[in-house]
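Why run this: before we spend reagent on co-expression, it is cheaper to look at a predicted model of the complex and decide which construct boundaries make sense. The entries below are exactly what would go into the expression plan.
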Amino acid sequence: MSEIEKLRQRIKDLEQQLLESQCKSAAREKIAQMSSEVVDSNPYSRLMALKRMGIVNNYEKIRELSVAIVGVGGVGSVTAEMLTRCGIGKLILFDYDKVELANMNRLFFQPHQAGQSKVEAAAKTLQSINPDVEIETHNYNITTVDNFYNFIDTISTSSLLGGPVDLVLSCVDNFEARMTINTACNELNLKWFESGVSENAVSGHIQFIIPGESACFACAPPLVVAANIDEKTLKRDGVCAASLPTTMGIVAGFLVQNTLKYLLGFGTTSYYLGYNAMQDFFPTMILRPNPNCDDSYCRQRQAEYAAKPKVEQTLSVADADEGAIHEDNEWGISLIDETESINEGNATSEISTGIKLAYTVPQVVNTESQEQVTKSDGPSLEELMAQMKQI
Amino acid sequence: MVDESTRKTLSSIPLLQTKAGPRDKDLWVQRLKEEYQALIKYVQNNKSSDNDWFRLESNKEGTKWFGKCWYIHNLLKYEFEIEFDIPVTYPTTAPELALPELDGKTAKMYRGGKICLTDHFKPLWARNVPKFGIAHAMALGLGPWLAVEIPDLIEKGVIAHKEKSAE
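The model came back. Tokens follow.
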């Protein structure tokens, strides 16, 4: 009897504790209007001060903006936290992964969240940091056919006003997902930032993609070189990818900085910003779209862009170009490419300062004569499926 | 990059023609037919050279694939389930082949048991769009991966032979 009493009392105590901890974690009430009043209790005072400093004209505008973040890993989670702390209007998060203890070398997620889905765990933390931000989560892989349609639908209707999002941020870790975002944004004519950290964790980049105006992800595929790979190098020790919280934090910082510059209209938004951690080298450049891009929507956007009158753009581009040229080079400083590039044919033409094609796309030749090609006539698909099953 | 026997295997798999992904309706059906023709030919070649090592089939739309692959090591047969989706950006991007039951057992794998193909396979695929199909992904991606990983996993005791496959 007294045992039961004791247990009841214990439950009561624990319930009380739970309530208290819940109250503690529910940090503050929602704030309807961003105030620039300088008091300790105003979470936006330091951000609104950007206006007084003459950096941003209209900081409150951030409350009306929606950003989609694809991939909530090492870069994406930090990106989401930064935008949340800046008071962004709405975040739409996509990821299909779970938090793992192996992620703890990165920022944001905590050990107790292991096992939870990344988007759920992130949404909870972000909401407690800033309840003013609306957060929508999607827990699926965008590269599969069914999810792709949902993805397209979501980014074209999920802004605060029900329209397309203001910007898409790619924080994914693989080629397939990047190509998927590229396909979607070219079709929907949405601006997006690509970001990435190399597999060896010591370099990274961000790239601003305006369909038709700057190179899309398919215009300049990663310069993977296929020649001379020894089968033996396949067997590498350790994991597929290394990662450092530093590099990821830096890339997330670059990404959000340029996101803010673009969205709030201050400074100059970088089209490409690279980071080489070994030398602390930060190249910036503009990548022009490839007129022969594989993506037909990219070519269509290029035609649309070419048809638009542009006075301002040419001006700003000229500025950027001049910035990179140094008239006097007193110390004779020049960059030496340390990587041995494997050239094939005439692959040396420069696309932009410091970039070379690693290989040329093979010419489209008439393959009829020499190559073995599958026949298009013959059995129907159903017959083929049945045949395959029967082997 | 590839050794002589792989080159020979490869040259006997029919190349594909139609550049179409699962969103391309009729063209996708055409591509799918080519995929099946290439796969059937490849499996038949494997059987006739006594090197039969996988079976695959797909859903009606050809967007989800599943089947089995096996690897013989010291006269014992190790069998694994395969599954993968055709990505929306196919064939520009290769399918991500997965062996879910090995998830977490080797570092050369991504979440969900997707095998790590970055170094040895993806560059090759990228240069052969749209001529390479699923059969090529099996021959150049999964085949070499199994040949490197499975003996290593057996040696480390991570996978053991299952008695049940007494075929």
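The mean pLDDT of chain B is 90. The two ends of chain B are 36 Å apart (CA to CA). Bring this page to Monday's planning discussion.
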